[in-house]
Design goal:
The protein contains no helices and 11 strands. With 121 residues, it is mostly beta strands. The N and C termini lie far apart (40 Å).
């Protein structure tokens, strides 16, 4: 089965840094884009950063100058380096991975379990 394992979450003071990691495994299909989302209670899940299989990135505006996402060399790992963290960054962060599942190019999205990031004042 496809499994996404996240690590690196925790609690830091405002202005500090965290590095989140996500490793995907359990499939013979190729990983396409991988991404990070976050979700506050009662709110919609929002895209934080996405990285294509070739390394191109896209960021949510509020984190663009502070966060950096990248793919591992094996293309089954994605990282999120979070710098100058703010209390409003406090959320549950989720890793996702898009897979190409057939020769026609159909895609399916799989999710990690989520990891808590807390930024204190």
């Amino acid at each position: 089965q496809v499994q996404l394992v996240e690590s690196g979450g925790g609690s830091v003071q405002a202005g500090g840094s965290l590095r989140l990691s996500c490793a995907a495994s359990g499939t013979r299909f190729s990983f396409d884009a991988m991404a990070w989302y976050r979700q506050a209670p009662g709110k919609q899940r929002e895209l934080v950063a996405a990285v294509t299989s070739s390394g191109s990135t896209n960021y949510e505006d509020s984190v663009k100058d502070r966060f950096t996402s990248s793919r591992g060399n094996a293309r089954n790992t994605v990282y999120l380096q979070m710098n100058r963290l703010k209390p409003e960054d406090t959320d549950v962060y989720y890793c996702s991975a898009d897979l190409i599942v057939n020769v026609e190019g159909a895609r399916r999205t799989f999710w990690g379990q989520g990891t808590q990031v807390t930024v204190t004042q």
